[in-house]
Amino acid sequence: MDAKAPVGVVGLGLMGSAIAARLREAGFATVGFDTEPEKLSRAEVLGVQRAGAAREIADRCGCIVLAVFDTSDVEQVIAELLPVAAGRTLVCTTTCDPERIERIAGSVTQAGMSLVEFPIAGTSAQLRRGEAIGLLGGSADAIEGARDVLAAICANHFFLGAVGSAARAKLAVNLVLQLNRAALAEGLVFAERMGLDSRKLLALLRASPARSEVMDAKGDKMLGRDYAPESRIAQTLKDAQLMLAEAKRRGQRLPLMEANAALLAAAAREDGERDSAAVIEAIRASRSP
User: Fold this and answer.
1) pLDDT tens for residues 43-100?
2) Residue 29, Cβ neighbours under 10 Å: how many?
3) Are 227 and 277 in contact (CB under 8 A)?
4) Please, is 37 exposed, middle or buried when counting C-beta atoms within 10 Å of its C-beta (0-12, 13-18, 19+)?
5) pLDDT at 183 (0 to 100)
6) Residue 2 reports pLDDT greater than 50
7) Using alpha carbons only, what angle is made at residue 136 by residues 214 and 30, rounded to the nearest 5 degrees?
8) Which pLDDT tens digit goes with each residue over 31-50?
9) CA within 20 to 30 Å of 113's CA: 21, 80, 85, 196, which one?
């Protein structure tokens, strides 16, 4: 693929905008579409060319990146693209239900398109800084056809196997990440209740064997109640629900994730557009019986 060929991005929320910015920085002309006009307007500031619909992107771009909310949105966009996008490569960065993305890949192949699965581990801010990791699934030919686009989005990526493998790996990664975040939130609230200086405790945690990267990404946001979104609580809850559904299919309970999902749901009821660090507010609001 010509490194300067236009690349489309469908979905210009936090992750989609970060993807578009990275593509622009790598020298790609970028065409974007979102159902929310204000997101399109913000993307235009980044140099993204506006499209009126997903199928218009197919007319202008050989590679189309999907960065929509969930699997149902992916299915809706692909249904629009199927009649018009033969020969195109679709790069799906949305965290999807593994079985449904496998079925989607079959429909895409039958329509003469290629699908590369590329969910991203990291927040939108980490992606913009080049710190996020791509989880890669798909055929060797499809991946090779999108190689330059994938490298522009995430230089560091791991190949997991066929489509569906990356979705499963992303759920496992997110499970550990979400539990780290919830554990940090609970520890900080516990320290507050015991009368400790929570900022001193955060510094101690960062230097201790309990350290996790989430302390750098979310610790200060939790303490400062800064919930400007880098990863929205509603999206985090959606991923938690995917994990629980997949575990149920496998006959496994996830007791820690069940507790975490309940906290996320409580935080989302208050305001699902806040950053995922807002899970701490659900813990702050809890009291022992």
Assistant:
1) 999 999 999 999 999 999 999 999 999 999 999 999 999 999 999 999 999 999 999 9
2) 16
3) yes
4) exposed
5) 98
6) no
7) 90
8) 999 999 999 999 999 999 99
9) 21
Q: Is 29 helix (H, G, I), strand (E, B) or coil?
A: coil
Instruction: Tell me the three state secondary structure of residue 93.
Output: coil
Closest CA to 253 of 263, 265, 243: 243
Q: What SS3 state is found at 49?
A: strand
Return the pLDDT at 287: 83
User: To the nearest whole number, what is the mean pLDDT of the chain?
Assistant: 96
Cα dist from 62 to 10, 58, 146, 225, 277, whole Å: 13, 7, 9, 43, 37
pLDDT confidence bin for 149, thresholds 50/70/90: very high
Tokens 């149902």 -> residue: 72
Backbone angles phi, psi at 285, to 5 degrees: -80, -10
Give the architecture (CATH level 2) of 168-284: Orthogonal Bundle (1.10)
The pLDDT value recorded for residue 288 is: 78
Q: What is the DSSP letter of 235?
A: H
| Cβ contact 84:56 at 8 Å | no
Alpha-carbon distances, residue 222 vs 77, 178, 188, 213, 283 (angstroms)? 35, 14, 9, 14, 11
Which helix (H) or strand (E) covers residue 64, if one does? strand 63-66
Domain boundaries, the chain: 7-162, 168-284
Report whether 127 contacts 18 (CB < 8 A).
yes
What is the pLDDT at residue 1?
A: 44
Q: What's the pLDDT at 104?
A: 97
